[in-house]
Design goal:
Distance between the termini: 52 Å
CATH class of one domain: Mainly Beta
Strand content: 25-35%
CATH superfamily of one domain: Golgi alpha-mannosidase II
Order of helices and strands: EEEEHEEHEEHEHHEEEEEEEEEEEEEEEE
CATH topology of one domain: Immunoglobulin-like
Shape: globular
Helix content: 10-25%
Largest sheet: 6 strands, antiparallel
Radius of gyration: 22 Å
Length: 370
């Protein structure tokens, strides 16, 4: 919890109603009313610094529920004790965007809800969007039903497996967004107006988000719903599942049977992805797949060893991927980290060339005509 809490009974006796210590209680030179969030911040900081001292070249994972401005330097976070309600599934979208705009990028909400019992439909829909939370975790109260994916039947289990596989395939894209936020404070999850500030249609859209600049996510947040309205801003967009191209700023009705969460990719995107994984470092990023969508744009792939603080010593790699005039330019790799030898598979979308292109990744500049 990372904050002072007072239970009516000892935890060993069930705890009972919980609150905080009196707001006028003295804490150092101030009162608890002012120090409450700083307490959580300093607990996260102490945990990080202690682990860094104990394991000087091994990244530790810390997680805090409470914090203050700057907590992202020390810990991931989550949004606290939500409920297995559709309203809390929907609320998680603007909630995580708000945190991201405040500089806290590595954040999630309890998939399925912490309190109460998720229905199979709610759990499936929550896992779909939750698989793309920056911090993705299922988490529930000891008094709730067991909420592992296989508890809800084979259909829901398969949906969960498919979307968790999607997350692992997209880790090169997502990890690169983490690098971007570490350097510039750019959110990983972004409200629609972040990239379209002149489009008033985006100002009050709270139930669809941008994962980075190029992937638009429009989850189902209502029960018994197999379609929804999606707003696509100015430009060209591709349906992630069907490759259908949609042009100009428009509202569309997206079909969304239980197995489908609407996803769209902006024209000019180069989306790096990897192989199917059961866990993040099960095997190297090989092959590296680049899904290239007709248009103009660029994306920078970030890589490091994923375990040590070598990146602080320059042991990382940056590869700029640029699409223009039906030509993919893979710029020369920069940095001191050399990924294992691998192939690059280029998959064109919306271009004259339909077949995939396969090249060896030697870190040198390459130009591929599509």
């Amino acid at each position: 919890m990372n904050e002072p809490a007072v239970f009516k009974k000892p935890f060993s006796e069930g705890g009972g109603e919980v609150g905080t210590i009196p707001l006028d209680a003295k804490q150092s030179e101030t009162t608890h009313a002012e120090a409450h969030n700083v307490f959580g911040y300093n607990m996260a900081r102490a945990s990080y610094e202690g682990l860094r001292k104990l394991l000087p070249d091994e990244r530790a994972f810390t997680l805090t529920r409470s914090g203050f401005a700057g907590m992202q330097k020390f810990s991931a976070g989550w949004s606290g004790d939500n409920h297995a309600w559709w309203e809390h599934l929907e609320t998680s979208l603007p909630q995580l965007c708000h945190w991201g705009l405040s500089g806290v990028g590595f954040l999630g909400a309890d998939i399925g809800g912490f309190n109460g019992d998720a229905s199979p439909e709610l759990f499936a829909r929550w896992m779909q969007i939750g698989s793309l939370y920056p911090f993705a975790r299922g988490h529930s109260h000891t008094d709730s039903i067991y909420q592992e994916p296989w508890r809800f039947g084979e259909r829901v289990e398969k949906i969960c497996r498919d979307y968790l596989r999607l997350r692992y395939r997209l880790l090169p894209y997502i990890y690169s967004l983490f690098y971007e936020t570490s350097q510039h404070g750019t959110p990983i999850w972004r409200p629609m107006f972040y990239h379209y500030p002149n489009d008033e249609h985006t100002y009050h859209l709270h139930d669809q988000i941008l994962l980075g600049e190029f992937i638009l996510v429009a989850p189902i947040t209502k029960a018994n719903c197999d379609q929804r309205t999606v707003y696509l801003p100015q430009g060209e967009w591709f349906d992630y599942w069907t490759d259908e191209k949609i042009t100009s700023a428009t509202h569309i009705t997206a079909r969304a049977p239980l197995e489908v969460m609407p996803l769209y990719v902006r024209a000019g995107a180069v989306i790096p992805s990897g192989p199917d994984l059961n866990y993040a470092d099960e095997k190297p990023l090989s092959p590296l797949t680049l899904d290239v969508y007709a248009g103009e744009g660029e994306f920078t792939l970030y890589e490091d060893d994923g375990h040590t603080f070598g990146y602080e010593r320059g042991e990382f790699a940056l590869t700029r991927l640029e699409i223009k005039d039906s030509r993919l330019k893979i710029h020369k790799r920069e940095g001191n980290y050399a990924p294992p030898s691998r192939k690059i598979i280029v998959r064109p979308h919306g271009m004259e060339r339909k077949e995939t292109v396969e090249v060896e990744d030697d870190g040198e500049e390459k130009i591929i005509w599509l």
